[in-house]
Amino acid sequence: MTSRNRPTIGFIGLGIMGRPMARNLLRAGYGLVVHDVVRPAVDELAAEGAVAAGSPREAAAACDVLVTMLPDSPEVEAVYLGDHGALAAARPGWLAIDMSSIAPRVARELAGRAGAAGAEMLDAPVSGGEPGAIAGSLSIMVGGSAAALERARPILEALGKTIVHVGPAGSGQVVKACNQVVVAVVIEAVSEALVLGAKAGVDPARIVEVLQGGLASTKMLELRGANMLGGRYDPGFRTRLHLKDLKNALELARETGVVLPATAEVEQLMQRMAIAGRGEHDHSGLITVLEELAGFRVCDAAAAAARSPE
């Protein structure tokens, strides 16, 4: 089940993130078996050299290492534990790497189920969004055994540039929740600043330029500032998925006795965005909620400033 001394990899979940990740594994020379509920995505990868599988169990049985990249805990549980689930094919020597962002308790449960079958499982969520998935430059936070990570490292190196072992099973998901808290709160803070400054009469593009030149500089503004100035919110990273991550973070906070007041507020603002039908927008579209509350659009101010002479 190997090609050129490399393990055959199964890959389940060929969405915005999963599809370019699977392509990077193909480019790295791995034999790849793919599955997704959306058949055209499977056909697209099959045309590029992957082998199509009809179910998670079929994909798991045909590979040495299974990688999953799915939207949320219910989908991950369905893929591993449902009818024709992947763990039905788990066996000694088999390894699963779940790169989805899910609840830590679910990651720990699945790792325990895999271990009972003599297999191993890592939770390895990522940061970097679609651009990082395409470039193979994701930051990967890994929970599970150090030995399993060393086995998985060559595979993960085809997908990311920063690979950090953060602890036992579930720890990767804990760190992912921390990451998503920071990103969400930063997006909300930048949104407040741009709406405030632009409504007060300053060209928002100049505000971005100043912020990026000082202590307030952020990667988020570097990557999403153009979206906010232009009023374009194609994902990217969908708001509904970030909302899910914040719900996981708040659940973890309740379990551990931690208070997350800013996270709770941003979760409600993203919930308002989803209720308004913008859950599929990029998470930088959170600025639209602040714009609505202020009765003012930053993108309109940016466009007007661009048309005006100096």
Topology:
Blueprint: E1 2-3, E2 6-7, E3 9-12, H1 18-27, E4 32-35, H2 39-47, E5 51-52, H3 56-61, E6 65-68, H4 73-81, E7 95-98, H5 104-116, E8 120-123, E9 126-127, H6 129-135, E10 138-143, H7 146-157, E11 160-167, H8 171-199, H9 204-212, H10 219-230, H11 239-256, H12 261-278, H13 287-294, H14 298-307
Parallel strand pairs: 3-4, 3-6, 4-5, 6-7, 7-8, 10-11
Antiparallel strand pairs: 1-2, 9-10
Features:
310 residues, alpha/beta, Rossmann fold, N-(1-d-carboxylethyl)-l-norvaline Dehydrogenase, domain 2, 2 domains, six-stranded parallel beta sheet, three-stranded mixed beta sheet, 14 helices, 11 strands, 55% helix
| CATH architecture term of the largest domain | 3-Layer(aba) Sandwich
Describe the sheet with the most strands: 6 strands, parallel
Rg, Cα atoms, Å: 21 Å
Kindly report the CATH topology of the largest domain: Rossmann fold
Commentary on this structure:
This protein has 14 helices and 11 strands. The chain has 310 residues and is an alpha/beta fold. It has 2 domains: 2-167, NAD(P)-binding Rossmann-like Domain (Rossmann fold, 3-Layer(aba) Sandwich); 175-307, N-(1-d-carboxylethyl)-l-norvaline Dehydrogenase, domain 2 (Orthogonal Bundle), CATH 1.10.1040.10. Strand 3, helix 1 and strand 4 form a beta-alpha-beta unit. The protein is elongated, with a radius of gyration of 21 Å. It starts with a strand and ends with a helix. 46% of the residues are buried.
